[in-house]
Amino acid sequence: MSDFVERRAKPRLTKKPEHEVGPPVVEITNLTTKFGRTVVHQDLNLKVYQGEILSIVGGSGTGKTVLLRQMLGLEHPSSGSVCVFGEDISHADAQQLQRMRNHWGMLFQQGALYSALTVFDNIALPMRELRALPEDVIRDAVLLKMSMVGLGPDQAAKMPSDLSGGMIKRASLARALALEPQLLFLDEPTAGLDPDLSDSFVELIQTLHAELGLTVVMVTHDLDTLFALSHRIAVLAEKHVIAVGPVRDILKVDHPFIKHFFLGGRGKRAVQVLDSEPAPGPEH
Ligand SMILES: Nc1ncnc2c1ncn2[C@@H]1O[C@H](COP(=O)(O)OP(=O)(O)OP(=O)(O)O)[C@@H](O)[C@H]1O
Questions:
Q1: What's the CATH number where 55 sits?
Q2: Where is the region Disordered (predicted)?
């Protein structure tokens, strides 16, 4: 059994029915995505509820990234709707998107910091783009976000090229949180980090999720990250969500992808850890 898995905090799962957890923060209905003749999504439905961490898994090319980009309004589906905070953004114009963007943050896989800007200026950028905040307020807010992600003021003047992989992730997370979003998107948040750094980044996400009351949508291949953070998992296969629910429920679903993904070597170890723990109670 891996220490790495054992040290991880227990996932908190929710099974409360919809009427008790409120309306979904994200609601995708009958979504179809086509690129030319290639159909990536067909009749895909998914709801993400307030305060949960929902992870999307699926084989390569099943359209996880495209789905994430559609939730951010960066790509338009061929048909169907993508509602975020109750607004359909599947064909949003630039103005609607700009307004919505102030309510969500995105952590891209590679961090995606601007290489020509210091850490401070990268984190300040979303605030400066609002053109509403005085520079002294921005300064205090940037330093606060930096301390929230474990970066001291001494890192503020550094360029991204001077940072380690773990620090780039932290600075990128601080930028994603700059406008105090209610909804956070994470694309492979621990990719490229060694196990220790990955472990501490997962703990940071757990802490921030609890302290800030965030709703989180995550795409990850990493089982340790998946099991440590996810309240529910949505499995993408055959062009739609074939199963969604707490990990224990997903593991019972008889589907070749689920068997392959969760019940290979690393998956089995993680499942053993999960089985040795008492079932977590509902979080709400
Ligand atoms: N702009 C585009 N034009 C044409 N095809 C695209 C475009 N964007 C994505 N695709 C195709 O859509 C499919 C889904 O891509 P996507 O990147 O979402 O998969 P994924 O599930 O994230 O895969 P991976 O796990 O390998 O990153 C792929 O077959 C990809 O080639």
A1: 3.40.50.300
A2: 1-21
